[in-house]
Amino acid sequence: MKSTLNHKAYKVELKPTSEQIQIIERTIGVCRYVYNLFIAANRDNYRSGSQGYMLGYDFSKWLNNEYRKSNSDKSWIWEVSSKAVKKSIMNADTAYKNFLKGRTGFPNFKRRNGRPVSMYLPRNNAGDLKIERHRAKIPTLGWLRIKEYGYVPYTPQALSVTITKRAGRYFASFLFEMSNAKSISAAQSESVGIDLGVKSFAVISDGRNYPNINKSSKTRKLIRRLKREQRKFSRKIQKLKQRKEETASKKCKRSNLDKQRLKVQQAYMRLSNKRHDYINKTVHEIVNARPEYITIEDLSVSGMLKNRHLSRAIAECEFYYFRELLERKCREYGIQLRIANRFYASSKTCSRCGHEKKDLKLSDRVYECTECGLVIDRDYNAALNLRSCKKFCTAG
Ligand SMILES: [Zn+2]
Question: What's the gap in Å between 368 CA and the centre of ligand 1?
Fold first, then answer.
């Protein structure tokens, strides 16, 4: 039976006090330590050729009994939220299971300056997780100020919260269980096809065109800044390596490196926020018109991804982020999302007479039909074809 409830997360930036920062840092540190301990224990099992592996549940028991007894110096593990530690173990368990199923490589250890580590806190009782206009009450941390007023809903009560540190800032993601009331609403506008591309980010069959923001001067400025900070960072690493060979002490140099790393992370976050905001806005506008269905092409076989010269430009556009968000929103609004069959030539087919132009090149920006004489923008032609495409599967 399909549940009528779905989960929705709201993310906001927090303004923790210095005491709260200490608790967060300590908890995140323990979560990272325990995550790595799980991976290390199973790596040793795996290397010794043993077939079995220690499940997250068993690991948790081992940690709280045997490990605790023989490691009295590690008492700080039990000084933070046990729920957060438990979640970190289960995350490691999932990562390891994915490896065993052949989905991913061997799970990496989490490094202090690597990918952000999160701290998960579930609601324990009615009173310990609350949201108000400008502040939120979070288990073990108490009241915290939030930066965006009124964005997170006050009701229903959030189920849990995950706190992440990124580029020196703290973010909370509140998880809610929402009823699917929106999905009952009927279609309000014509169905659309969407052609994704590098020239224009998205061309819609109703004539709307969303340009590629990576070409706008503001975004290019952010890209240049990120590259500059990255260059500075690698230069600093080089210098540090040279010095290491000459002298012994370089404590102060280390802190310079940390500062520069933070600058890289901040520049990266500004850029990715800009791109994601743009995609959020685009998806919101498309979905808000409530078309009966939306057809997009199958990204995995899209000609663009096969073109090596374009692969960087494509990474910048974040089509997968778009696809995921569109899928989620369509499910929420009850809109059918169609994925065109991988052999459907949406770009090469004439949207008026159906003739297929086999020799269309990626550089041909205008589609000229040799059969019926139609002259039309290439991406717009593809969007029209996607709208009328009859060979598709449905997503979500
Ligand atoms: Zn034609």
Answer: 8
